[in-house]
Design goal:
alpha/beta; nine-stranded mixed β-sheet; binds calcium ion; 17% strand; homotetramer
Chain lengths: 325, 325, 325, 325
């Protein structure tokens, strides 16, 4: 079976970790690099969370972690720590032996795509600062990427960080706009709403069922996503949300997608009121399409899929403090 | 039965006419004035449409029509003539004897509310230029209005004139923002989407049934809304839309409303991309509430209600060219 | 000698008062109305200052004072009280008998220009809210005004309220932009910088000389402008500034102008950083000219002119508390 | 004599070339790299112009030329080719043997400053895209630069590309704002107006005198700046302008500066009207100072200085087509 070489660009916390697990453990995936970008929680914590994730999968040291941009292009960084806590689920591993790659994330993105033009895909599940910086440095970058899947925005629906904006696009709206207009040949968007709310939210019973699969990954999942589901329930969302892991899943298994359309997508950069809002214009407006927006997925199949990932037996490289064995 | 004194502020075309009919013929309504504002179609055509509507109800000359602002506060006027044609349904009446009030719409709004502070309600079913101008001239205006019902915006859902903006707010976003922030004590919003699409859209069979009631008003309705339903169907909306008449209906019959919530509503004025978009922030964001946004209505009851209005037997004051008798 | 009929639109404080004196006492002037707009200091204080000015000229009751808009079109009112104090120079008169016109300033502007289309000029020496509101209500207003002189903006030079913006345009930038784009046939601008700094600033010795002319008006002048000259000197301006009285002077005596050019003038409304900044594009840019910007005046002649006004003997209608006789 | 190690970041055309000559030939200068950024003319032409300049100085191959960002961060590139033509003065050299460094300009900026933290200065005489990108990749970059001299903006005075904006800041306003707010410890600005117009413009007689010095560099100068002086004269500027060479000169010879002040400088990014305008707020506004703005230089000494550079005898490495010997 041919595999899909990919890079995951991530602000690693909660569901970012599950997304990385899918990239690591799905047999069709060939994860070449993890590139870190400022987003959910403090940068060092994000890096630690990425190591923690590799470790619980028993894959520490097999995939390079590249540090990237620690702030948005133009804006001050704003965290989502009210949602995520520190995003670690209270877990930790000894940090002495953990090392990241020397190469900057943006350089890694440029080099890896230059080494294999048209072959690598990218799943971007944080703010888009790294990708935008790669584009600014090299306007040929976009043409060398096979498929870019972006978790971001909402499809004419509610936001999460403000009434109209989703977090990833909100944090670095200029980066999002640069990426969306850069001419990627195959650009797919997993919007926060309504898609992930309707098709990729696991009610607590389902969430608990995944947590009880008996593997280290299942325990890890249950701990990592605990803060998310608590927060979600407090704001009226009935379950844990999985936009990031869904984004990896739809790259690796396009058959999960049951509806999608071409849209012209722009991100608001001119207004504070609507900062980061994604305007997704459908065919009525006859604008040039720059993205395929995923409108529906097979939620049950996605749940099965994640269950399969989490059921994978693994041996953590290092003992995980806080994770019951 | 005590009646509800009201003013309708309107860019009269299609469903604006039906809204005026409700204001004229509903026994609980006491329509004091019609104030005209630049919006859907050419200003003179709008005035003609208002006369035409009074005439078909047999009420020509009983309610003053006040000419108001012929352009938005700051923007160039943009029509919706692609949707409405000239908004007359191809109907006309002899214009020689038709006269409007001498008084400017803004003056009428200021005077009528000053004469009966706290008693009059306003249903605003066009761009909000007249109301904003009244506020600019007299910052006490808002406090003298009993209830203001605004047809405008979308509730974290699709727009109609752009992907994110509804027409009335789009045409004069600054006016909309002035009105929303002016401190009206009882401000209710009928948003375009999802409300009027889900609960106040009549499929063609229903539309035709109303048109076949056998009265002059029923024939008038069927002609006036023909362009709307054709356009709607061409863009994937399954029926004729009735946001303006719904706005009058919810003022006169609040029991039609089955769900509503307090929101902080702001209108985008800083960005062309999102010009006129309504940001409706729900309770999660802890912002000061400035409007009750109607979230659901009893669509069947509203259909019955409009049917009752249109079944009212009337004798047009002047013969209507184009209307079969 | 034919006279020049004019209206002064003013946020009356300090030099606004001197401008009104010129409009009252210059034999070529026929001052028809004073219209009040929110600006320098509290609205009631401004009205009081206008009465005070009429009184010291012995003209109380001869020119109507119309109350106008008490806030900018869209913005919250911001005062210049750090510059002006209350703008009264510590003077006051008994207020019991003072009355303003019933008619709103905007209505007065509309009515007076409609009664004598093409004959009246306006000198606007405050924020442009009243004029913009008149335009919003009646798009024919601009065509009925003979000459409009605006004190506002800077000509590619320093601002005073921010680094880039002059106070009048800053307070209501949208109004300024509406007025500038409304199609006035003869629109002349007196910019704050460099014009009034280079050609209409009186060093303290000159200021004191005017104050020592021995008339009630001279004493009034010296008191009214004391706060201005103190402030000016504190920010490095060597003397008292007279943009408002200069604006009346150039209408009544165009020969004071020694240089002027056609410019395309726009006012910044989209950015907080440059809020209210006037962009004055000279001929290089080939943009349609909408204003004649005054670039130089005969400063000595203007000083002589003001001296002549202030030397006029007058008998105040009411005794002025605080003014030595 | 200790030398000043520096990098010149440039959109090489006309006076950029003269700036490079100063960096190459001034004995106090130690030019470590030339980094290219999109600006005045086509990118390849700019690179060719840089080689041409090194060649005429007989220094081809001694200073690396690094290709940098070929477009602004967010905006489409706009040229100044109406001013500069192709910026080559009609000169050319055989291109076969010319090579640029492999390393990207942004990488070079990051590496060189990391190798000698606190030692290198940068003179930025084009749009600030490269510097902003370096900051985005590494937030520690600014702290490693000794002195940054920026040619850009105007000090409350006229622009050149629009009425209010100077070209370098206009082309990439977001980059300019990123750089200005990045915390450079010693940031000096050479503004277009009034400084370079009043103190660094050479009337045609002076320009011709420099061109007649009899060296290859003098002939080169006269050819390279011919388009500039022709354009300048066509828009009312009496001579050839030298903002870029002045910027190098003030780094190498601070004694040329006769007046400067600390300002808070921001660049307009939110408005198209004022795109790229530099707001320079002086002490009155009590804002945190982020730049020393040069307000006056000894123009005669600067002219002498440039004359000295151009009088330097050199032997071009390759024959220059179009340059009389
Ligand atoms: Ca994420
Ligand atoms: Ca309407
Ligand atoms: Ca004033
Ligand atoms: Ca340059």
């Amino acid at each position: 079976m041919p595999t899909i070489p990919l890079i995951i660009d991530t602000d690693t916390a909660q569901d970012d970790c599950i997304a990385i697990l899918a990239g690591l453990l799905d047999p069709v995936a060939d994860l070449r690099a993890i590139t870190m970008v400022a987003g959910n929680v403090g940068f060092e914590q994000q890096v630690a969370n990425a190591h923690l994730t590799l470790n619980v999968a028993g894959r520490l040291g097999t995939v390079p972690i590249h540090r990237g941009c620690t702030q948005p292009l133009l804006r001050h960084w704003e965290s989502a720590e009210d949602v995520h806590g520190d995003g670690s689920g209270g877990l930790s591993i000894p940090s002495d032996s953990l090392v990241e790659a020397d190469e900057h994330a943006v350089q890694a993105l440029l080099r890896l795509t230059a080494e294999a033009p048209g072959e690598l895909s990218i799943v971007a599940i944080g703010p888009l600062t790294n990708l935008a910086a790669a584009i600014v440095l090299d306007r040929g970058f976009a043409s060398r990427v096979k498929t870019l899947v972006i978790m971001g925005g909402s499809n004419n629906a509610r936001g999460n960080i403000t009434a109209s904006a989703e977090f990833n696009f909100y944090v670095d709206p200029e980066a999002a706009q640069v990426v969306l207009q850069a001419g990627f040949g195959d650009l797919r968007i997993v919007p926060w709403a309504p898609l992930t709310l309707s098709d990729a939210t696991f009610p607590r019973a389902d969430y608990d069922r995944l947590g009880a699969l008996g593997t280290p990954l299942a325990g890890f999942y249950h701990r990592m996503c605990a803060a998310t589901i608590d927060y979600d329930e407090s704001v009226g969302i009935d379950g844990s949300t999985h936009p990031d892991s869904l984004s990896v899943a739809v790259l690796l298994h396009p058959e999960l997608v049951t509806a999608e359309s071409g849209y012209r997508v722009d991100v608001e950069t001119a207004s504070e009121l609507n900062r980061g809002m994604s305007v997704m214009a459908w065919e009525k407006f006859d604008l040039p399409v720059n993205a395929q927006v995923i409108e529906a997925v097979d939620g049950a199949a996605f749940y099965e899929y994640l269950g399969g990932i989490l059921a994978t037996p693994t041996t953590p490289n290092l003992p995980v403090s806080g994770l019951s064995s």
